[in-house]
Amino acid sequence: MLTSYNRTQIIQILAPKVVSYEQQDTELKLILADTYEADNDFINSAKTLQTIALESSQRTVSDDEKAKVWMRICRCYLEEDDPTNALTYLNKIKQIIFSVTDQPTRLQFQLCQARISDSQRNFLDASAAYLTLSNEAVIDEEERLQALSAAITCAVLAPAGPLRGRQLAKLYKDERTSDTPEYSILEKIFLDRILAPSEVAAFAANLKDHQLAKTSDGSTVLDKAVLEHNLLAVSRIYANISFQNLGGLLGVDADKAEVYASTMIESNRLSGSIDQIAGVIHFNTKESGLAKMDLRAWDTNVQNLAEEVEKVTTLIQREEPAWYEQHVAA
Question: Cα(50)–Cα(253) distance, rounded to whole angstroms?
Fold first, then answer.
C-alpha cells in the first residue's frame, strides 16, 4: 500500500507533465488529502487540495466538482480554527452555489457559513444560519436539534437590541426549542427577565473556547451579553434608577453600569437618557408591555414573510435560471 510519502513523490514526478495527466494528478491529490486528514493533519490536506487544477483547458470541471474541493478546503481550515482562510474558500463557493446541485455540498456550505460567523463572533448571522440548517428535512433529527441549540446559543451571545429580539422571538415560537437544554435561558431572555449568576454559569459551561474569549474590557462575550440583557430587563421594571443601584443589580460598579448604558443608548439599543449630575438614568417606558409584545410579534411576522419570499426567489433562480434572469434579475 502506498504511503503519503510515496504519493507525494508520484505527484512531484507528475508535476512537470501535469497538463497531460491532470485527471490522475487530481485523483492522487484527493487520496493524499484523505491520508493527511486520517492523521488529523488538516493544514497539509488543505494545502494539497489547493494545488488541484480546477480551471483547465484539458478537461471540464463542473461547478459541483469545484464546490466539493473548495468546501473540503474550507472545512479543513475550520478544523484548525482558522476562519479567515476558511472564509476565502467559502466566498469562492458563494459565487457558484446556485448552480451546485449536490445536496450534501449545499448543506455543508450552510454549516460552514454558520461556523465561520460563529467563530468570528458574528453571532446574529450565525444564529440565523444555524436556524435555517435546523429546518433542513434531509438532516437527521438529532443533528437538526444540535443546530437549533447552536442557534439559541449564538442568539444569547449576540448584542442586546431589536435585531437580537427578533431572532429570539423566532426561536422562542419554534416548538422544538422546548426540547433543547438552552430553552430555560432562551425563555427568560425573551420574556425580559433578569438572569441570575447561577443560570449564566450553567449556560457558560457548554460554550466553546471562542465563545468564552475576552473582549477589550476584560469581560467575556457572555458577560457582556448578559449585562446588556439585564440592563434592558431593568428598564422594563424601573422608570429611573441611580447608577449605584443599577450597578448593584447588574453585579458591576456604578461607572461600568453607566458606560454600558451610555453605549446602548447611543447605538439605539436602549431607550432612555442619562443625568450625569444626579448619577441617574431615566428609561423611556411610555409603551405598555402588551403593546411591546404586539410590536414584537408584528416584527417577527414581517421577518418570517421576508424570509419565505427569499426562499421562493432562491428556488426559482435555481430551478428556472433563464426565467429568473428575464423577469427578476433584469
Answer: 52
State residue 282 phi and psi, 5-degree precision: -105, 125
Please report whether residue 16 resides in a domain: no
Residue with cell 474569549: 213
The reported pTM is 0.72
The model's pLDDT over 251-268, given as tens digits with 9 standing for 90+, comes to 889 998 999 899 999 988
Using CB atoms within 10 A of its CB, is residue 139 exposed (0-12), middle (13-18) or buried (19+)? Answer: middle
Instruction: Check if the beta carbon of residue 164 is closer than 8 Å to that of residue 231.
Output: no
Would you mind telling me the total number of residues written for the chain in this entry? 330
Looking only at Cα atoms, what is the longest distance across the chain? 81
Does any domain span residue 29? no
Closest CA to 203 of 188, 224, 182: 182
Nearest to 113 by CA among 86, 137, 140, 135: 86
- Residue 316 included in any domain: yes
**Residue 304: inside a domain:** yes
Query: What CA–CA distance (Å, rounded) separates 44 from 73?
Result: 10
Structural domain harbouring 301? 291-329
**Average pLDDT taken over every residue of the chain:** 85
Spatial contact of 25 and 14, defined as CB atoms under 8 Å apart: yes
Number of structural domains the chain divides into: 1
